[in-house]
Amino acid sequence: MICSHNVGRASARFFRGKHACIQGGLKPALLLALALAPVARADDTFFEKRVAPIFEQKCVACHGEKKQKGKLRLDSFAHLMRGGEAGAVVKAGEPKESELFLRVTLHPEDEDFMPADSKPPLTKDEVKVLELWIAAGASETTPVAAIKGAPAPTAPKAPTLALAPDWRPRAAQIAQLEKVLGVRLVARSLVPTDGLVLRTASAPTRCDDAVLAKLAPVADLIVEAELARTKITDAGLAALAACRNLRTIDLTRTGVTSAGLGKLAMFTKLESINLTSTGVDLATVAQLRAQPGLKRLWAFDTPAEK
Amino acid sequence: MQTSAPPASPDRNLCSDHCGEHPTVWDLPHIPLGLKREWLDLETRRHFLGKGVKALGWAGLATLLGRSAPNLLANSAIPGAPAMVPHYAPKAKRAIYLFMAGSPSQFETWDYKPALADMFDKDLPESVRGGQTLTGMTASQTRFPIAPSIYKFARHGEAGRFISELFPYTAKVSDELCVIKSLHTDAINHEPAILQLTTGNMFPGKPSIGSWLSYGLGAMNEELPTFVVMTSKMPHRTNVQALSNRLWSSGFLSPEHAAVALRSGSDPVLYLNNPKGVESDVRRAMIDGVNDLNRQLFDRVGDPEINARISQYEMAFRMQTSVPELTDFSNEPQSTWDLYGPRAKEPGTFAYNCLMARRLAERGVRFTQIFLRSWDQHSRLPTNIKLMAQDSDQPTYALVTDLKRRGLLDDTVVIWGGEFGRTVYSQGTLTPENYGRDHHPRCFSMWMAGGGVKPGISYGETDDFSYNIVKDPMHIRDLHATILHLFGLDHNKLSFKFQGLDQKLTGVLPTKVIHDLLA
């Protein structure tokens, strides 16, 4: 009876996991809220909270309901304990004598290494979790709190946030602006909501305040602005305010001054700003540093650092 | 255009690269004209097929990304074509690879082995060597006496890393470095080993890392080459191996992805300046004329090599303006010379090249590789490694420091290392003051900094003799995959079809990105 009860608990957990996947269409904020919801309860078991998720993520594609390579299933505690075609895979209390543990800790190029076929291996933390759990008796009912020293669970990956709107509908406009203005607007990655890089390195002197003003139709797509050595001045900074998704801006060796930089508070998402060899002063640097969200600021070779 | 006297046949124009350098089928006597024509037909058919397949491929890509086709042709050798897009948002935009050719010993640099001090002149246990085949240089030694490092180590930085006293400057940036002690390679001799490091393969003919990056990501600054190589003056010359351009060639990738080698002195790029009496507008008109002819030929035969040639003429013309500006150090303030040291004023020194690398990084050059040779210390290691360290320590520190203070280290990855490790046992006579070390491929140390690499950590461990790896082995392939990853490229997806295979920098053997190294 105890056994069947346990199977029921484990499969309920897996069902919840699948359920969350089906909800992929949920708004990111809601998904994030789900992912961050507090989970630790007094009756949470180590197996359910820490071990089963590893199997689910790295093993059940080949050892689950659909495929049972080596006649092994790892999609429930009962199946795990039943073992595979060569018998038990877990010896309670003895990780180093447990086939399950040995297989995931072989050299990755060993032909018996699991997961096979260059599928993503277990992380060091995951291996440690398995080792601790087997060493502690490989029980299904041991509570989370009873096994000490387990690496902290990694936070569930937050859904990828859109940094900027999808640029593809405006591809023609982007190409036209590149041609006319002599700047480059490069996709940051194959993810179309990762935004664009405004790139000027080929002809920095061609990029001035007027050019920036003409970028207005695509300003919200720009996530990184590489403006080092350009002719941009304080007036141009005001035009950049339309780049509401800007995360990174490089103003190295430009004519911008504290007067214009004071307005940078407009960029609420700004994370990184390079002011090397500009006229920025100490007060403005302090003001910028106080801006929430700003992680990196460089002001080498400026009045602020002299 | 050609100086040799071609027959009047218009088909003679087929091979624009010929330039009278070597004979073609058309020059061979005693071959019936019919056979020659058949060869021409085949050539054309091959070109046509190549052209057709490529055109289809571009159309597919364009649809996938929703951009107009010309915007995606970075790899198609069309001049001025913009960059390809990384697979995922990159951490690094550029890399500077300080290649310590000849291979510095790990014992005197990064892999501290204090236990060896008590084993001076003891024989290396056979069990450690494990029957390994040695090089011809030490295979006949009757003894393999352990040679502890003559140089002392001390802890540095917040991480408390042990660094050799040979690197007092680099030690100051210890917390920026990620030291890898568990690299291993397949080759035990210089040429295959250095090729494997630079191109992923022991055999020549494969594209180097910089070429793959150029092919995969395109240029950031179209006025300068995407991939630049510099070789450095040596502070002393012992066992110096030749460097050749197969270490920075584009292999089977289009030739514009090969490195431009910057020379020291007044002519950094050979033949770049106009000859006496040729003004810039004349040169421009000439290039326009040649390009026009080449375009006509491309329209007829569709060989991508022709477009590569066009883009190289254009690049050379643009470099006539961009290179003098790049190599003019007169606007560098005194603080630069204080940082890099006085030798940075002398063109061709390692210090000069490090400063040049910073200037290239500022201007958006993706991959700069600086070679410093003469680390191959089979004998007189204590004396010679000191000379090498003295020459390179301050500039290395200066480069990392300079990139950091200018906000460039964030997206520039710096890589330092040789092509393999060296043996714990002495090659030749061992005395308390003098010893040598032979080649050792089973483990060696490198470091990386910046560009999304986790700072201040060490990765991997070797045994007490730094002979075998005991924790976290990292093959050269893994290093390459990790570098590509920093640039937002998946090493399994960055490929080029050649000889029927989807060729990759990392080849076909199992390879992994080392995520523990990523910040």
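qc> Residues 1-40 of chain A have pLDDT under 50 and may be disordered.
qc> done
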